[in-house]
Amino acid sequence: MTHYVCATCGTQFPDSDAPPPDCPICQDQRQYVGANGQQWTTLDALKAKHHTHIAPEEPGLYGVGMEPGFAINQRALLVQRPDGNILWDCITVLDDMAVTTINALGGIKAIAISHPHYYSSMVEWSHAFDAPVYLHAADQQWVMRPDASIRYWDGETCPLGDGITLVRCGGHFAGGTVLHWDAGAEGRGVLLTGDIINVVPDRRYVSFMYSFPNLIPLNARAVRQVADAVEPFEYSRIYGAWWGRVVPDDAKAAVRRSADRYIRAIEDGLPA
Ligand SMILES: [Zn+2]
Ligand SMILES: [Zn+2]
Questions:
Q1: Ligand 2 centre distance from Cα of residue 135 (Å)
Q2: Phi, psi angles (nearest 5°) of residue 4
C-alpha cells in the first residue's frame, strides 16, 4: 500500500495498491493535467531527489521550501510565536532535516493552509509534529487524504491565539484563506497570503485569479470581497506563495490600488 502523490500539484492521496485513476485537484479548471497525462510519484521517490530548504525571511519568520523545486513549488512559512509556532501552507517533501531544524526552532503547534493547491502532504507534516491542520470548511471536498488531525473552521475569521488570525477571503477558492500576524514587520503587521492575494513581479502590486495556469480572472465582486476581507487588519508587508514574492512595505495600500486597477481592467478595458 502506498500514499501516491500527484506530480503536478504535489497532493498526497490515501493508501492504495495502485495509483488513483486521476487527481480531482488537477482535473479542476484551476489546475491542469500535463501534456504527458497524469503522473504519480511517492514521498520516498521524491526524497531521493529533493530536499527541504529552510531560510529566515525576517525575525520570527522562516521560509520552508524544496530543492530542486517540485510541482507548484510553493514555499511554506513558519511563524515563531511564544505559545507555539504556526506552519503556514505546506510542501510535499518532508525529510529528517526539516524535522530536526523545525524542532530546534520550537516545533509546530498548528498548521494552516490557504487553499487546496497547497494541501500537499499536510497529513505527514501533521503527524510528524503532532499538530492539527486548520482548513476552511468551504474547501472540504478538495481534501484527498482525510485524517483526524484536520480541523475544519467555518465563518470569516479563526483566531489561533498569540496575535495570529486566519481570514477567509474566498476568491481563488471558496475557502481561500490568508493569515494575519500582528507582530510581524517590527509590529506593523504581516499577511501571509499564498496565491489568494498573489504578489506579482512588480512588488508594489498584487493580483487575484480564479485560475493561474489557465489565466481565468475573478469577477469584480470576488476581487472586492478579497480586498474587503483584509481591510480591517493592520499590516504593512505581504509574503506570497514563492521565495522572493514579498511586498516589503505599504502592502495595505498595494492591495487597495491593485483591487481598483484589476476591476478597472476587467470592466472598462486596460488601465490607462
Ligand atoms: Zn494533482
Ligand atoms: Zn492556487
A1: 14
A2: -70, 150
| CA separation for the pair 180, 221 (Å, rounded) | 22
Give 95's contacts (C-beta < 8 A, 6+ positions apart): 47, 51, 52
> Does residue 14 contact residue 146 with C-beta atoms inside 8 Å?
yes
CA of 183 from ligand 2 middle (Å) equals 26
pLDDT in tens, 37-79: 999 999 999 999 999 999 999 999 999 999 999 999 999 999 9
Ligand closest to CA 115: 2
Stretch (H or E) spanning 253 = helix 251-268
**Which grid cell is 103?**
524542532
Q: Are 179 and 170 in contact (CB under 8 A)?
A: no
What separation in Å is there between the alpha carbon of 104 and the centre of ligand 2?
30
Ligand nearest to the CA of 197: 2
